[in-house]
Amino acid sequence: ERLHALQVRYPWFCGYAAAPFAFAAGRNFALTGGFAPPLARAASAAVVGSASQLSAAMFVLHFARRAVEVVAVNDYTGTWQRDSRLEIVYYALWGLAAGAASSPAALAVVGVAPSAIRLAGAAAFTVGEFGNAWAHLELRRLRAERDALGTHAYVVPGRGPFAYVSSPHYTFELLSWCGYALHSALDPTSVALVAISAAAMSGFAADRHARYVALHKAGDRSNGDPSTRWRMIPFVW
Length: 237
Known about the structure:
Blueprint (H helix, E strand, L loop, with lengths): L1 H25 L18 H28 L11 H18 L2 H7 L4 H34 L19 H16 L4 H30 L20
Helix pairs in contact: 1-2, 1-3, 2-5, 5-6, 6-7
């Protein structure tokens, strides 16, 4: 059982842990794309340096938190098969690209978003991180209650954002990346990160929503009807 737990956690942890190191390596390069992002403006060296450092802090914080949660909070059943090598390559490539796109050398060329937009992006990122962490802790609390009762049956969450969205942890993660993209002046790398993250998480969100709906039909009426909730993106899907 312990070996199985290690096997299903290992790919996620390795990918998340590799991303910050790749980001740091990417900052040694300048990925400009040949054109300025739509919200970018020329700025002084001090502003460029500050914006670059905040991008690094946000990116590293997100993946450091997720790596810790893999070990201390999340419970992986192995339903989704993951390959550690692909995970490391996937997240390392994103780290390299994001680091190079937000490096001081790159931002000195393409510019940065106005301070108000950067602050709004950082605020959205912060809300997303706290919401994401809360949702994971809430799921952990429900598992602890289930284990205390000696059952392995899933229950339909209903507290907080779970009353409206089946997978608010994905919602908040998407908000984090939207905030990161806003802070990055909607440069191609950060926008692509939002799009690919949304596509990747949508499969998990759809699977979880279907599971909750099935549990409700099977008799779990404790937290309302999950079929009336959004899957991942409120008012959209």
